[in-house]
């Protein structure tokens, strides 16, 4: 016989069952697929975390200013971590969304005012034959004016930032560099001298890869056809007690260093201006790219560019005509600056890559992380070139050679001129994959990449002496450089890619 309380017990049992098993799973309703663009999670977060003063036009934003600031990023030192961020959480203070960029209206009005005062400069109009010294009164270096370039340049180099960005170095004394050591490096393109430079502005070891094989002459004391590219700071005598062997060990030697041949160099006296027949040395200012140069990433063409620069600089040069026609070894240098990720550091570059995978281009990705599109400076490169005898002296007199610069980046040419380097020619760097217009012409080589159902052969591109890089990622990267960063490069992509633009 059922108990009089059976219905009550049944309800209690059901409630108990609900507690033990949880509620019925929700039935997912089928809805229409959204047809508008997916919302950018960063912008949504921005809107949620800030007031109406932050709009979608506030690009220079981030949630972690102490970590993400350009100064801190890349050199983030966890020993300096104070735990403030977590402390603020514990106190209930939430991290706020920070915009370090002035309202768009304000920025545009400053841009307009600047454009009115601006004199257009056409660097392509530099004539290689113009031998008149162009040494100008030295202007402030790029590092000191770095604050003024935080907006992506859209075909024009005029951009001004109204909110002060971090100052790299408040030091106004002339920048000093010193070549600490030099050694011979055999490369697939021929021998080079690797120079290690220290500066009084940062703790990094910048490099100069000097190509000047004439310095291996068996008779090093005979005058060479072209002036040797040598470091004045390396060749100088560092102290009264420094021995000849110490000088040779740090690289201050002439000729080929062997077990039997060890000749210390003389402190360099400024050499004569070279004959007009000899073309100015070919140089490249290159910025560090761990992913492209060491790992072999094909997201960018940095490794290929480094290889191509050393190759082009090493090409023999024919001078003179008729019976006096002769060939001399190629000469020049790659100045390798430790400014990874266009100056934002490897950590931020890796984060930027993830934003790029989510559909943003390389410029926007930098801006979304609170960086500028390009945070590099070239004052150290200028000082290294001066030390290698490729610029005027402190008074601005032309004591040495002009240069030809391998680059597509107008900022580099302008920065070198500001540093007192006389640039007589810009030599474009055409991506190898763009030179071979048809994909079929690309000859893959060396590396086999196994995937589950196919074996693809890709090119071992980015080591010095390797092939060319190519692919969808690279095409996007190069297109952004041309269309958003003003790089002076015709869009020589495959026909099918070009038609998409
Ligand atoms: N932030 C960021 N940096 C990148 C990316 N891809 C490459 N880089 C960096 O860009 C820099 C490449 O600079 P350079 O090789 O000097 O060349 P460039 O300024 O593009 O100009 P060119 O002289 O014409 O080659 C290196 O520091 C790379 O690490 C990217 O997607 N994002």
TrEMBL record:
It comes from the Eukaryota. InterPro entries: GTP_cyclohydro_II (IPR032677), RibA (IPR000926), RibA-like_sf (IPR036144). Keywords: GTP-binding, Hydrolase, Nucleotide-binding, Riboflavin biosynthesis. Belongs to the GTP cyclohydrolase II family. GO terms for biological process: riboflavin biosynthetic process. Pathway: Cofactor biosynthesis; riboflavin biosynthesis. The keyword Nucleotide-binding applies. Its EC number is 3.5.4.25. This is GTP cyclohydrolase II.
